[in-house]
Amino acid sequence: MMIKKLINITNKKTKYKIPGRTLFCKTFLLICILAFVITGCGASSGENDEDQEAEQSKYLNVGFSQLGAESDWRVANTESIKESLSRTNGIELLFDDAQQKQDKQILAIRNFIQQEVDFIVLAPVTETGWDTVLQEAKDAEIPVIIVDRMVSVNDTYLYTAWVGSDFNKEAEIACEWLNKFTAAKGILASDLRIVDIQGTLGATAQIGRSNGLLYASKKYGWNIVASIPADYTQAKAKEVMQSLLKDHDDINVVYCENDNEAIGAIEAIEESGRKVGTDIKNGEILIISFDAAHSGLSKVLEGKIALDVECNPLQGESVLKLINEVKEGNDFQKYTYIEESAFTADDTVTNVDVDGEKYDITILTQEILDGREY
Ligand code: GYE
Description:
By secondary structure, this protein is of the alpha/beta class. Helix content is 46%, strand content 18%. Helix 4 packs parallel to helix 5, helix 6 (167-184) runs parallel beside helix 7 and helix 8 (234-247) packs across helix 9. Beta-D-fucofuranose is lined by residues 70-71, 73-74, 148-149, 165, 203, 205, 232, 258, 290-291, 311. Beta-D-fucofuranose binds at residues 70-71, 73-74, 148-149, 165, 203, 205, 232, 258, 290-291, 311.
């Protein structure tokens, strides 16, 4: 290959007149190049290729299609997976960030298939639209592990396993807390004027969190003033909140579907001259959030986020375990749910009932915040 390439280059060059060179000079030059390639250079590059191949075959090749880097949660999720799927753990990781675009994720998966990776890990931006590409991975006999959000496919045999959070449960915890908290403060359900700053429409986290709020609003008689997506980003949530505040002067609860959105919403509220807090009767706006990343929990401790429901992004170890189990042909769990908590700085509500079970609400301390890894 290499020799052919050099001959071609040399041939190309001979088409041009080289001033002051004789045919003898040109032939001599060609012989020298060939000798160099065949002896020293050619041999060592072959050896290098072999060395590289031998080095790489020591590792399991895993392609990871991450949907983006839109939030603190996402950054922590990427870091966790990169840390676990490392050479130390026998894995060569190919990483692709799709910048929140499904077509980029599909392209990345096709590239991984072409490169004949051993496993594909996919954090899908939305639930639908994966059947074709996952069938392609299946045909290539590459196991696919889905992380975080789900894929909604005609047949679940298209993926090997899934690791993530129970988004319906997270929403139920948040809404049960709001119901108990407002009841304890003597606030009527019919007085609640809630806005939902949603995540990326069609993402499992958005579907679970938005639906949970809708369900509870019907159950308890709350008013949902508006539901607007902000793609889980601080900047978009700030814009959304600014326009909501202009259109509605009676908002008293903002249900943000992640911490970065909550931070953006708080900025907009404070810049408008209103206050965030739990004293709804005196005009404060109560903020609920999800993720409980360090940035969100700091706002809990400052009294600006009333409740932050945890969504744990540290999924790397579970993914590594699954990969090893599948590789060894051992039994494995098709669905793995990560354990999670919920945090508040106010001790009015210490637990809620979720699906007939008591669920503790953790009172956040500086010590918990200091120990937060993400
Ligand atoms: O809450 C948000 C992120 O899908 C659980 O996506 C994830 C969500 C998370 O951008 O911060």
